[in-house]
Amino acid sequence: MICWNSKFDSYVKTLKDGNERIIAVEINSSPKRICLINCYLPTSGYSDTAVKYQDNLDLLEIIIQKYCESHQIILVGDMNATMLLSRRNDSDRRFRSFIDKHKLGTLANMGTAPTYQHGKGSSQIDYIFSHTVDNLLELEICHQHPTNTSSHVPVVGKIKATLSLTCAKSIKPPERRRNLWKDCDIEAYQSTLSNSQIPIIERPDQIKTFIDQLNGNILAAAKIAVPSKKIRLKGPKWKASPALRQLLVKGNLIHKNWIQYGRPTVNHPIIEERRSIKRRIRSQQRQDMACERKQFYNQIVESGKSTNFYKLIRRGLSNTISKPQGFMNEGQLILDLDKQSKGFARFYEDLAVPKQLEQFDSDYHENTQFNLELIRKIVLENKDTFSPITPDEVKSAIYKLNNNKSSDEYGICAEHLKLAKKFYINFLRKIQCLPNRSVKGITYLLLGVRPATAELHIRQLNLLGCIIRSENLTLNKILRRQISTKSETSDSWFTYIDKLLVQYDLPSAAKMVINPPCKLLWKKNVKLAIDKFWTQKLLLDCQNKSTLSYCDLSSLKIGTVHKLWSSIESNIKDVRRGGIKARLITGTYVLQSNTSKFNQHEVSSVCPLCQYEDEDIVHFILKCNALFKYRKSYIEELEVIINSISNPNTCSWNSLVGDFGLLTQLILDPSVLIKQKILSCSEKTLTKIEDCSRKMCFSLHCGRSLIINSEH
């Protein structure tokens, strides 16, 4: 063991070298740092002592060779071997050879005095060695003292070293702050979070990086939008009352007078005044604390808030506030600590035993039993399947978190998550490289995913199916009673479920009780009904949007991924290409014509590359002369693909080239031409068209950015 005063913490650093018998520290001294090695080598008398002893000497040699050039080596400890020639066992020979090899020495006044006393004799096995003996100023083997119960006596040494002032900087504790969530700018918080960079997960080993980035974005948004205050403050934590302040002022004056009189200790009137004012201050402090405790206890009883109860618990754990001497148990005041422990044990033992008492709420007990039976039934029926956690389930769990609680190891607390309401839809936009202004419906439909609300409804309706199919008599009894007695205005879960059944055009709960559907059929019908409803609702949101004129809305539906995303390969370059094309299909790619509209035509809509005509999506993809070299090879590839289609119903490449609108549609979303029977091709050919057009859009984007940046 190596110990040092805490004031030298900035000079001493523990080294990772060593094992359970050897430890080392680095002392930052000048002109050369010190490597202090403390060891307790294996004792003799065992069959494997020689092997263990040599292993530890080898480890010491590695440490010394590692630090001998840059450090001054000091070796101390119980060597379980001696430098005296009177002993010649195997450990002694190995140890003396090791010391000679590394040119370690000690002061001559070590002599032959023993450092270890035992029943059969004594020996010298505790040493202090150094590479440079001149740095050892003093060395002494202490005498045995009555208070020393060890068989070893201390060996005291002094070394010559100057501590480096460069390391004597005071370590300032980190500033602790508390977020004031009541004053949070929610708009700024959500906006910052939505605009933050989110990395794309391509491999499982990137999940940790993704989580770290996500947590960093949340903390950065909170730092911008949430004010905070310091919680590490100087000075006393208690507030002095007006009466106590007056006594403190008077006490300060008396103390100054006592100093002016030369700090007398006996036979002076100021001494009695000083004692009297101290007694009065302590008495007033006790009165104020008693009054504050009484007010606090009354507040707990009257308000009934859990926050006050937790304050009481924190006070009980605090060392700065006097703790109660006892507590009431079974009508008796218990003051003895052992009896208090036994009283608590009896209380919690009694609390853990199930029982039926008059003061228990029977309705609450019945609901609890119902929920337990329901959970058991669900687990049994779904034990062979895995139901992934939905965003709405996560959202529901987040809203159940308590506010004003400490943060986790990442620094995230409940308020961070509760205020990030619109993160799900923005996250889907980020995945597709779409801006926040893109139509909400198209964000879901391009990926074919359900909104979070739809996922929650699926889980709720599947739960209804589990309840109806349950063979538990108590469960069936409660179910029938709820269905028959509930009203449309009640807060019953079954009332809420009935509204969902009507919304999705599914049979009512009363009909299903009479004729329960099978598990797989019910789940299938629920998914089909919900997907149909949300597909229609999201398509309605996309209708009459001029930005979606090149997108085939009729082919979009929940559960089917658009060809744009289903045809890409799983690499980051292809994903980036898909992101550019997604922005072109959804009309969110910013061209000069868009900029002109957004600025009320104060900015010119003419193409900044060729200065020939307005830069709209057709001009950008097909007409701009400045981008000719970026599209040439891809246009030729598209021509080969179209001409290779041996279908008489497909129009020729020449007819497509003659109509810029049709050619633009072919590049952005060829499924529209297939629906209009202008194009007829296989899925394989359609994938080739998608792949070529995706690369072309990305090439045009890179070319446009390169030209604009070079001009600026």
From TrEMBL:
Top-level taxon in the UniProt lineage: Eukaryota
User: GO MF terms on file?
Assistant: catalytic activity
Q: Which SUPFAM superfamilies match?
A: DNase I-like
Q: Which residues cross the membrane?
A: none
Quote the InterPro entries the UniProt record gives. Endo/exonu/phosph_ase_sf, Endo/exonuclease/phosphatase
- Residue ranges of every copy of the Endonuclease/exonuclease/phosphatase domain listed in the record: 34-155
Gene3D superfamilies from the entry? Answer: Endonuclease/exonuclease/phosphatase
Indicate the secretion signal residues. Answer: none
- Any idea what this protein is called? Endonuclease/exonuclease/phosphatase domain-containing protein
Q: What is the lineage of its organism?
A: Eukaryota, Metazoa, Spiralia, Lophotrochozoa, Mollusca
